[in-house]
Write a structure and sequence with these properties.
The chain is an alpha/beta fold. The protein has one domain: 2-Layer Sandwich (Macrophage Migration Inhibitory Factor). It is about 35% helix and about 30% strand. The longest helix is centred in the last third of the chain and has 18 residues.
Length: about 120
């Protein structure tokens, strides 16, 4: 936790390697100092088949899932940092966006929490 899932058109990973994209999003996230570095998770899902409105323009959208407790201002800054780094990497990609969703601590569970 937190989880950053990058959905993008397949062309994106032809322009830059998945490892580089993941590293840049990780670094931008880590630079905010909102999270423990070892807990930041970043994944990428390139899509061959998609539509963006009525086009097939390239796109990048980051779904950020974080534990509740950060302020709106902190989340807005995180969004801005990630969008800025992706825009600098892909200045010709017309759609670059992110949304942040909060996990509720009360309903979150992982493997370590259920092992005895």
């Amino acid at each position: 936790m937190p989880h950053f899932v990058i959905d993008c058109s397949e062309e994106i990973i032809k322009l830059r390697s998945p490892q580089e994209i993941i590293r840049k999003v990780y670094d931008a996230t880590n630079a905010t100092e909102l999270f423990i570095p070892e807990e930041i998770k970043v994944r990428i899902n390139p899509y061959q088949f998609y539509t963006t409105g009525n086009t097939s323009d390239n796109f990048i959208h980051v779904f950020a899932n974080i534990m509740e407790g950060r302020t709106t201002a902190q989340k807005a800054e995180l969004s801005k940092q990630i969008t800025t780094i992706l825009n600098s990497m892909f200045p010709n990609v017309p759609i670059i966006s992110i949304n942040i969703r909060d996990f509720e601590r009360a309903t979150y569970c992982n493997k370590e929490m259920v092992l005895e």
